[in-house]
Design brief:
Shape of chain B: globular
Oligomer: heterodimer
Shape of chain A: elongated
Radius of gyration of chain A: 24 Å
Order of helices and strands of chain A: EEEHEEEHHHEHEHEEHHEEEHEEEEEEE
Strand order of the largest sheet of chain A: 6-7-8-3-9-10
Mean pLDDT of chain A: 88
CATH architecture of one domain in chain B: Orthogonal Bundle
Largest sheet of chain B: none
CATH architecture of the largest domain in chain A: 3-Layer(aba) Sandwich
Helix content of chain A: 10-25%
Number of domains of chain A: 2
CATH topology of the largest domain in chain A: Rossmann fold
Low-confidence stretches of chain A: 358-369
Number of strands of chain A: 20
């Protein structure tokens, strides 16, 4: 019904390549979030799927059928735009019903459909208003209503929440997700907000500079990033990257040696004597009460209420640690850190790729496609 | 110490009063006299107004004015909109030459109206060098009496006026078109909207204010237009293309009837104001 397949899609504007060999298969009813920094090509990817941009080469298939040559209107997709793109001179009801203009329905059926959608989105009292008399969140709902009513094969969202304030964004996140479970439809959702990616997606596609860096479930992306880019981009604060030399049974840091777990030496045999990047999430760094571990100096603490983020440095390496809310530290304090190496990801500093065999993560084991 | 807005407004009020308000008041005064252009002695009289209203010519003149104004205004707006849409469309398709096109269209506008009249007189000319008739002859069609046939002359005058005035409405509407959010057209494309639906649901509603303002300005310019027609037909043949402004001009500068000419000018002013108010009522509420 709504399987979308991109086969080596390329797109360039003049000499600039915006999409470079994009291969992606999205299952029917799947909710896929495409995330990446601005300019990474994620919006272009969405517009190619919508038909608003033409791919320079490659095939776009809906349910196995090539749709490259179809106009946006013929593709049976619906799109929610960042600025909502509501027709300002039409009422909310007409905006929502716009896609039904040529549907084989009586006037009464159309009105019933509009009212059903309005009930679903809780905007019934607004149906007679014009878009400029609505708040941002209300406009967002109308834009979704306009998309939903056509019962499309694919929903496309282009950074739909970026114009809303933080509280509303959080609310709309769960509403969009709830809507998807009520009306399961293939959804491609583009955002630069990693929290949206983590909380909403069945699968996340991380893009950078026109390429796909990694495709996976949110936990795969978070726990086993495939590249240093993904590791740094996803997660707040981003993953700590510690340059270390592996000497056969320990990682050598500027001021200390960290012994490695028992199963590492076998896997890391080719890396003896070489530099590695040790990737560790801030929650996998903890403060020790007794000496030992990795010594570090506190630069800054950020109490957020539920936790306290501590920014530190060890040699030239800047680190961030997620600590309990009652942590009391001051700039310049000397502390000792425990590293949870069992949760670490190791990267090859030359290729920026994660080392293939590490770590054997109990959560994602066997789940990787 | 001076305070309040008055001192700041005074220079502008002074200039406007001297060069706009005073002549209008003077014309009103003259309309109530029997003044002639070269007579210094005038007295208050209703004769000018009376002879204007009673004249049998005035009906013909007003009908000419109506035909000429409506046809020219509608033509300029429609053609200006068409060219503006074309330019925007071409720009969106990243075609070359849109700047050249805009410049060419604008070139018509910077030509003085009197020169425009002369150019079109040459083009319409029924003499052997008349460009349009030569072209018609080349294509095997019979030539048209553009200017000498009273039933064609008005059409010719309207064509010449539209040709010159189109640039103005093109630029105005082009600017307004550029302010429309392109995402609206993309949303419409995804909603499978046909071209006329895009025009009807997005473009025209957005252009409403610009169209009305444009109509007001063109209306006033067209009502006051007389140099193009003066050069093209001189109001003829007969009175076939004589419009109110030309008639007022003739009354003052050929018949030297200053009082009656002033009365005709008052009539023109009243018509302009009346029609402008009608158009302002069509403006979207937030722009009034």
């Amino acid at each position: 019904m709504g399987q979308v397949e991109l086969q080596s899609i390329h797109k360039s504007f003049g000499p600039t390549a915006v999409l470079d060999d994009i291969n992606l298969t999205i299952a029917d009813k799947e909710f896929v979030v495409v995330v990446g920094p601005s300019g990474c090509g994620k919006s272009t990817l969405l517009r190619v799927v919508a038909g608003l941009e033409e791919a320079s080469s490659g095939a776009l298939l809906f349910d196995g059928r090539a749709v490259n040559a179809l106009s946006p209107g013929e593709r049976n997709v619906a799109m929610v735009f960042q600025n909502y793109a509501l027709y300002p001179h039409l009422s909310v009801a007409t905006n929502i019903g716009f896609g039904l203009r040529r549907a084989a329905m009586s006037r009464r059926e159309k009105r019933a459909a509009i009212e059903r959608i309005a009930r679903l989105l809780e905007i019934e009292p607004l149906l007679k208003r014009r878009p400029n008399a609505l708040s941002g969140g209300q406009r967002q709902r109308v834009a979704m209503g306009r998309a939903i009513i056509r019962n499309p094969a694919v929903f496309l969202f282009d950074e739909p929440l970026s114009n809303l304030d933080a509280r509303l964004r959080m609310q709309m996140r769960s509403e969009i997700r709830g809507l998807h479970s009520k009306l399961p439809t293939t959804t491609i959702y583009v955002t630069h907000d990693q929290i949206e990616a983590m909380t909403m997606a069945d699968r996340v596609v991380v893009m950078n500079a026109g390429r796909i860096e990694q495709i996976g479930t949110p936990s795969q992306i978070y726990d086993t990033p495939r590249t240093t880019f993904v590791a740094r981009f996803m997660g707040m604060p981003s993953m700590n990257m510690i340059a270390a030399r592996y000497d056969g049974d320990a990682l050598v840091l500027p001021d200390t040696r960290v012994p490695v777990p028992a199963d590492w030496p076998e896997r890391l045999a080719p890396w003896v004597g070489r530099e590695l990047l040790l990737g560790l999430r801030p929650e996998h760094l903890s403060l020790r009460t007794s000496p030992g571990g990795v010594p570090a100096t506190v630069d800054l603490t950020e109490p957020t209420g539920s936790e306290t983020l501590v920014y530190l440095h060890h040699g030239d390496t800047r680190l961030a640690a997620r600590t309990p809310p009652d942590t009391r530290l001051r700039r310049g304090d000397q502390v000792h850190l425990d590293l949870r190496l069992d949760r670490a990801t190791l990267f090859d500093p030359d290729t920026t790729l994660a080392l293939p065999t590490l770590p054997a993560d109990p959560i994602t084991k066997g789940e990787t496609a | 110490m001076v305070s309040g807005p008055l001192p700041w407004l005074l220079p502008a009020v002074g200039v406007l009063g001297l060069f706009y308000l005073y002549p209008i008041l003077e014309a009103v005064r003259l309309a109530f006299t029997d003044a002639r252009l070269f007579d210094t002695e005038t007295q208050l009289s209703m004769r000018s107004l009376g002879s204007m209203v009673g004249s049998s010519t005035l009906g013909v003149i007003l009908r000419n004015t109506l035909t000429y104004t409506v046809a020219s205004v509608v033509g300029q707006i429609a053609l200006g909109l068409a060219i503006a849409l074309l330019v925007v469309r071409a720009e969106r398709a990243r075609l070359r030459g849109t700047l050249v096109l805009r410049t060419i269209v604008l070139a018509a506008w910077v030509i003085p109206a009197i020169a425009n009249g002369i150019i079109w007189q040459l083009l319409f000319s029924e003499a052997p060098f008349g460009a349009i008739n030569s072209a018609l002859r080349l294509m095997g069609a019979s030539p048209v009496a553009w200017l000498s046939d009273p039933s064609n002359a008005m059409t010719s005058a309207v064509i010449a006026t539209i040709w010159q005035g189109t640039a103005y409405s093109m630029i105005l509407l082009y600017a307004a078109l550029k302010t429309i959010d392109p995402a609206l057209y993309e949303a419409a494309a995804i909603d499978n909207a046909r071209p006329w639906e895009r025009l009807w649901f997005i473009t025209l509603p957005h252009l409403r204010a610009a169209l009305v303002v444009n109509a007001i300005l063109i209306l006033i310019m067209t009502l006051n237009m007389f140099d193009t027609i003066l050069a093209l037909t001189g109001g003829g043949p007969g009175r076939a293309t004589e419009i109110l402004s030309l008639y007022a001009y003739g009354t003052v500068f050929q018949n030297f009837e200053l009082g009656r000419g002033a009365a005709l000018s008052m009539l023109l002013l009243i018509i302009s104001l009346g029609l402008t108010m009608v158009l302002i009522a069509l403006l979207p509420r937030d722009r009034r």
